[in-house]
Write a structure and sequence with these properties.
alpha+beta; three-stranded antiparallel sheet; 3 helices; 45% helix; 14% strand; rod-shaped
Length: 129
């Protein structure tokens, strides 16, 4: 019973942390989709940390498009000639922590299945015995 609760808690924590990282990606998507006089190059690709006011990234001049990867969670800037680079929009702790929590949840769930008692009352013999 404890292992199942631990698996559920780890799974819930992984889900919450993934949503936290997804908020960062959605913010970058809003910035990238914002048109106007200051929209080129794409703002999340313009700075090395993906935030306004950060140091300029020299690769930003070649950015032609962007994409989002959901596993691992990240914002990708695509450059001319088929190249790409990943911005630091999502905090560095999100993907490793989500991976560790998912593995913990799966491990606890499997361990709970292995150590689970068989169903039925204890000490009762079957027919003929």
């Amino acid at each position: 019973m404890v292992l199942r609760k631990l698996a559920g808690a780890a799974g819930l924590a992984a889900f919450a942390l993934y949503l936290w990282g997804l908020l960062y990606v959605l913010g970058a998507l809003l910035q990238a989709g914002d048109g106007g006089a200051d929209s080129s190059p794409i703002l999340p690709c313009r700075t090395t940390n993906g935030q306004e006011g950060g140091p300029e990234d020299p690769r930003a001049a070649q950015v032609v498009d962007y994409s989002v990867d959901f596993v691992p969670l990240r914002f990708v800037c695509e450059t001319t000639g088929g190249g790409s680079y990943v911005t630091r929009t999502v905090p560095g702790y999100v993907n490793p922590a989500v991976g560790g929590l998912v593995l913990t949840a799966l491990g606890c769930w499997v361990a709970a299945l292995v150590v689970a008692e068989p169903p039925g009352p204890r000490g009762v013999r079957g027919p003929g015995g």
